[in-house]
Amino acid sequence: MQQQQQQQSDESAQPLADSPQHHTPRRQLAHARLPSNAPPLNYTPQAYQQQQQQQQQQQQQSYTANPPPAFNIQPPTNSGSGSLPSAILPSNAGAGMSNVPGSLQPGAGANVRSSAPSSTAPASTPNMQPHPIQTNSQQYAQSSQPPSRSNTHHSHSRSSPAGMDGLSSTGQKYIPFNQTPTQTPISSNPKAYNASTPAAGTSHSPLNLTDIRSRTISDAQEPAMGTNMMFSYNDAPTNSNYMAPFATYAFDWCSWPVQGGGSSAGKMAVGSYLEDPHNFIQILDTNIVPQDVTGPGQSPYGLEYTKVAEATCAYPVTRILWEPPSATKPYTDLLATSGDHLRLWSLPGSTNNMSSNINRSANVNTREAPPQKLQPLALLSNSKTPEHTAPLTSLDWNKLSPKLIITSSIDTTCTIWDIPTLTAKTQLIAHDKEVFDVRFCSNSVDVFVSCGADGSVRMFDLRSLEHSTIIYEPAEKNDKCKCHPPMISKSIPTTDINLQPAHQQVHRLQNPAP
Amino acid sequence: MTPTQPLLRLAASPFDSHMLATFASDSNLIRILDVRQPGTALLELRGHQGNLNSIEWSPHKRGMLASGGDDSLVMTWDLINQENQAVLPSINGNGANAGDIPIKGPSSSWQCEYEVGNVSFAPESMLTAQGGDWLGVCAGRGVWGVKL
Question: Longest Cα pair distance anywhere in chain B, in angstroms?
Fold first, then answer.
């Protein structure tokens, strides 16, 4: 038996040895995402292009971004055959390289933009750095060719005539980009820009814009840089968004109702997803602030964000969750993350946050009292050698019984944890390949579903783990299944999905001494 | 046949314990599953142009979903109200390709500036008491609060 267990643990160690190459699709996704999200240091030429495209995007949207963004309803009448189909048809995506924001314009973008002119200068931004704005607007008044420049730009990024709405504002915003170099050591650009129309045209070519942007972004790294209005605009928090110093991925808005009619809209937890072994967790508190309603349907309230706590961890956070609401207490300070392990965190006492909230509405961007350290409460690992545990891809916290957490792993298993005792209750091999996500079914402490690299969704019941139900599986198998028409419930015996080892593991876990 | 598409994320409806939503990696369509009818998808949600990264059910409104993807779009989906959706082009003359799975479009969308990593619904607070649901959106390096 001992030998068997040994073998067992060797088997479970197998995926671990592979883990560096064993990228989950999410990791690959993250790779793909990184160029546009990554900190400036990681910029590649492609990232420049993407940034530049996003820049164009922001020119159309940065003003809309400041009042809290509102969802744009797409009534069937508005999205008739004219606009929406082209946004939805995959055939169009190919032409737009799938990530080019411009290609999305006929769909939501067009509608968003149409509401853009209604929202004028944001309330918070001018307060940040009023000086550069004045400078820019003066120089804008002296300049005589904004429309033609704007047209050059539009021919690149806009496909919809609705873009004409934004012409003037786009032109305005372009000035600061080219004015920025006048305040930085680069002097050739502004001259070319002012010299003649053709030169102005070329100065707005994507390449040139990219150059400026890349410089400015690296400049923005230095906190003292006060002249980069447009870029600090993009990277700094406004009254409707928060910018973290890292690429974010895991995110959870604490679902506990905010008690007592306070000005908070609830805390948020954010985790970074960086490939290097330096990752971050931040806790943000939100503050509801009134704002001018400048358009129909716009909320009279916006949000401000305060970083109240943070922590570092080595492995990227694949999922972060607050403890689910319970009737026994008014709020929670407990968080769980999946990544290298299941980790529990506690938010330190939040008494002094109130005072900082009161002060901060005047200066949103200044750093106040340093945020507290998020306290690591526990590290849960079902291996005796924690450094050799397979990465966890996700977790779910049972809403009925918050003492239960389930995790999924690339080692094909799911594990149910008992939080009060910090022990693994059950571990089972859930899939043939990596498990990417797992959730408890609502209103149950026993039933959970998982999905993974084998393309299947499976449902388990902790009361009878010898069976699982395949809820969905890859198309090839589906076709076979269609040979047996009325498929009411397909329960497969344990052996079919190799559950037997899971029981041994369960045994091993419950009796850790070999 | 196409190689097996890994299923990346899964979400269980808080209102209907038999309802699930899932999507595959490198895919822009969301499948709604009913655990009582294993084997096929109940519904396909189409509208995203880039790969999906996140799907969440609304904890407040039955049958409502929010999703985010690499197309920098956040979309909401209303599975209850048939009229509350965008008009979708018919894929072929015959409708859906395999299996005649009904297709549904988004009921609303919001264009973010970056690829959307995760979405999370706002809790009850003075904010939501003042007018409807809010959605937290995590994209690029930023976090946005978006009013639905």
Answer: 52
